[in-house]
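[Discussion] Sanity-checking designs against the backbone

I'm trying to build intuition for which residues belong where. Below is a structure token string of 335 positions. I'd appreciate it if someone posts a full sequence so I can compare it with mine line by line.
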């Protein structure tokens, strides 16, 4: 991405092993993330940035210290590089690994090949070579599924709980899926888009709220006997979405926020009297990857349906435009 709105597919040198803990993968599929739209729309600075942080592929080469994956393995990787052994990783927050780095900043996986540092801690091999039909779902696990799952866990979604989901993009929809899998009794999706509403219902939403802002909060309260939801997933990252999430949560409830924050400021006094829990940030996808891969492998979940447009890598610019114009929920790129 050379500048806002300016995406080009260009040749660069094939990656090489630099550190003994590296792996080189041939990318089978990558995709465009909603967070990629922030710089595309000029809301984050960007200049000649390599793009992409979601990926699945086949290991082609490994450094001499790599033990957990081997050449030929089909792997899913987190969007954050982590060693998975440091004290923070061991506590379940691999997205804040002391040796961590964001794939989007240093690797760029909207590409044919990628060098993955700290391969042992970042990559997880699938039980075998996947059927082509499983690849979109495995790709979803690299970020949006893991992020939606973390949001639901952070919001303490579970049996008997009412969960509200603010945001109907890919992460919000995966939050619906996760809340359902975690046993939520009722899942309220906040969406105005008929296609996204349909997908939310497929993933387990029981109610739809089309209103936003104060009207949306009032509707959530109306659906919950005036109390608010037990668990609220915030999957957008704007001031409006965060306040909508906080105000939709009942006292003692939990907000799981995973939308990348842009100019969000929390009013201290309102937060004080809300009596709620806030938990979120960059999702530690690596914590959940083994279980999510198994759920996909066993065909118990189908997160791949979130991809509604597939394009070859050379048409990535069209994919960005389609997502920017909301003609696509999420674009899969085939290398």
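Best answer:
Here's mine. Compare freely.
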């Amino acid at each position: 991405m050379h500048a806002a709105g300016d995406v080009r597919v260009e040749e660069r040198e094939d990656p090489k092993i630099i550190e003994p803990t590296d792996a080189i993968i041939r990318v089978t599929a990558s995709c465009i993330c909603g967070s990629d739209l922030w710089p595309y729309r000029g809301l984050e600075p960007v200049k000649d940035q390599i793009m992409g942080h979601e990926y699945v592929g086949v290991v082609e080469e490994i450094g001499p210290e790599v033990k957990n994956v081997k050449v030929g393995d089909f792997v899913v990787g987190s969007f954050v590089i982590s060693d998975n052994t440091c004290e923070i990783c061991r506590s379940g927050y691999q997205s804040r690994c002391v040796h961590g780095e964001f794939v989007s900043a240093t690797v760029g996986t909207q590409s044919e090949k990628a060098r993955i540092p700290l391969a042992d801690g970042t990559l997880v091999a699938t039980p075998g070579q996947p059927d082509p039909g499983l690849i979109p779902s495995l790709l979803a696990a690299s970020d949006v599924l893991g992020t939606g799952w973390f949001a639901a866990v952070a919001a303490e979604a579970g049996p008997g709980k009412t969960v509200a989901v603010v945001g109907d993009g890919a992460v919000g929809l995966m939050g619906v899926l996760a809340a359902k899998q975690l046993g939520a009794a009722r899942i309220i999706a906040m969406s105005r888009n008929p296609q996204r509403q349909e997908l939310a219902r497929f993933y387990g939403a029981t109610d739809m709220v089309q209103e936003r802002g104060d009207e949306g909060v009032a509707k959530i309260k109306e659906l919950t006997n005036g109390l608010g939801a037990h668990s609220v997933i915030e999957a957008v990252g704007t001031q409006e979405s965060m306040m909508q999430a906080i105000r939709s949560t009942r006292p003692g409830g939990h907000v799981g926020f995973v939308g990348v924050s842009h100019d969000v400021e929390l009013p201290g006094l309102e937060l004080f009297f809300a009596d709620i829990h806030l938990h979120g940030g960059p999702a530690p996808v690596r914590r959940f990857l083994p279980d999510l891969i198994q759920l996909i492998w066993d065909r118990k979940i189908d997160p791949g349906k979130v991809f509604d447009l597939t394009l070859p890598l050379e048409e990535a610019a069209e994919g960005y435009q389609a997502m920017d114009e909301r003609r696509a929920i999420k674009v899969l790129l085939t290398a």
